[in-house]
Amino acid sequence: xxxxxxxxxxxxxxxxxxxxxxxxxxxxxxxxxxxxxxxxxxxxxxxxxxxxxxxxxxxxxxxxxxxxxxxxxxxxxxxxxxxxxxxxxxxxxxxxxxxxxxxxxxxxxxxxxxxxxxxxxxxxxxxxxxxxxxxxxxxxxxxxxxxxxxxxxxxxxxxxxxxxxxxxxxxxxxxxxxxxxxxxxxxxxxxxxxxxxxxxxxxxxxxxxxxxxxxxxxxxxxxxxxxxxxxxxxxxxxxxxxxxxxxxxxxxxxxxxxxxxxxxxxxxxxxxxxxxxxxxxxxxxxxxxxxxxxxxxxxxxxxxxxxxxxxxxxxxxxxxxxxxxxxxxxxxxxxxxxxxxxxx
Length: 344
Hints:
Layout: H1 5-13, E1 37-40, H2 43-47, E2 55-57, E3 60-66, H3 67-70, E4 78-81, E5 88-95, E6 99-104, H4 121-130, E7 137-141, H5 148-161, E8 168-173, H6 189-193, H7 198-208, H8 231-243, E9 245-247, E10 261-266, H9 273-280, E11 288-293, H10 309-316, E12 323-327, H11 335-343
Parallel strand pairs: 1-4, 7-11, 7-12, 8-9, 8-10, 10-11
Antiparallel strand pairs: 2-3, 3-6, 4-5, 5-6
Helix pairs in contact: 4-5, 5-7, 9-10
């Protein structure tokens, strides 16, 4: 019995029976893990003709649906009606024994967040959940190139600088190497974490050219990349952003309380359920936690898809009124990345 997958393979090749521990299995099959999206056709309108009754509340429109017609949907999950005549995307607000109340989701393909717009419906759903102040815990699962880090960071910057909901963005990730370990890294905590934060720097380069923070740059709000052509502009913008974006190590999170932070946990698939619990329980008043990962890309030899902390929280938080989950599948990084993901 061993958690080390490499050790088990070696044992099996030598004729020794080897098995994984089953006691830490959090989900039975990752393929049946809910995606947060439920797709229906024209028949949904027909089945709810007598109860549909659209109501306008403020700037949103709500619909009332029979629970028996939408199946096992939970609060903050998406009901997508793919009807050629009347396509509509709804997010569940309330679920009772017989009825489900859902409102129209903001379409972020037509509305930008920190200068970026969603390229597909899944990204739009994710941005709607990331921008909702009533949702305190968001999980995004999907392959590389689906935009998880970019949209999470854009939503954090918009809510920190524009809405003033958070006073700081904290980002961390599990330091599990893909290849050979290069040993200890010198420097401070932030300097040690810097090589692991390539995704943060890459996405900041994109977002720096979309919007300038108002802090320290009078009259710069709403500026575009044309205003950033000089070296000073880029350096000044990066300096302003990095004052409010902190990189932290998982090793020093125990015992901390995060107050008023937008906390991004990247590569969450490499965490165990116990590590995930330790991190999520750090959240204090006014803090939002965003977990990003790909359950198909686990680097730790001691974790698999059924024992990952990411799958654990996706399943355990389902149905809580302040949590949401979306599985992203459409790769938008480049045609090369999309082809590699599908064929390699």
